[in-house]
Amino acid sequence: MDVRILAATNIDVQQALATRKLREDLCYRLNTITLLIPPLRDRKEEVTLLLKHFMTRIAERYGRPPLPFSPSLLEACLKYNWPGNVRELENIVKRYLILGDESQVVCELDPRNSAQAKGKSSGPGK
Q1: Domain 40-121 carries which CATH code?
Q2: Contact present, 59 and 65 (Cβ < 8 Å)
Q3: Would you list the domain boundaries of the chain?
Q4: Which residues contact 39 (CB under 8 A, 6 or more apart)?
Q5: Cβ contacts of residue 59 below 8 Å, gap of 6+?
Q6: Number of Cβ within a 10 Å radius of residue 94
Q7: Which of 5, 10, 51, 123 is the most buried (most CB within 10 A)?
Q8: If we measure between CA atoms, which residue out of 89, 85, 103, 88 comes closest to residue 37?
Q9: Where do runs of H (alpha helix) occur along the chain?
């Protein structure tokens, strides 16, 4: 049997080894090739390219024409911190394509609205 394992983490592996949160033997078994990819928030120059890529791919998958990205939507995407990384960006594109509501996406990407929404949903009984 020939098995390949692809593992990804956002933790500091060296620190996890030092504090024994990661087993050393497991790390050495997995650590054949290491790729360090910075988070999307540190690669803002890729946001526009990724938006276009995901729009094309998702539109094709759903059999819909791709939607354009207005300057205000592009600006909101470039200013956003992307805590969910590329997966979050892909989900935003999918939501925009399906709902077709650019203003909703721009509103979601505004950190002030995000903080308000979290405050509303974290109240009693919610």
Answers
A1: 1.10.8.60
A2: yes
A3: 1-36, 40-121
A4: 10, 82, 85
A5: 65, 66, 67, 97
A6: 17
A7: 51
A8: 85
A9: 13-18, 24-30, 47-62, 71-79, 85-99, 102-109, 111-121
Q: In which residue are the tokens 């938006």 written?
A: 51
- In angstroms, the CA 64 to CA 98 distance is 9
Structure tokens at 98: 């399906």
Q: For residue 68, give Cα distances in angstroms to 15, 39, 77, 96.
A: 44, 25, 13, 10
- What's the one-letter identity of residue 108? E
Name the token pair of 87.
Answer: 């997966």
Tokens at 23, concatenated: 């087993």
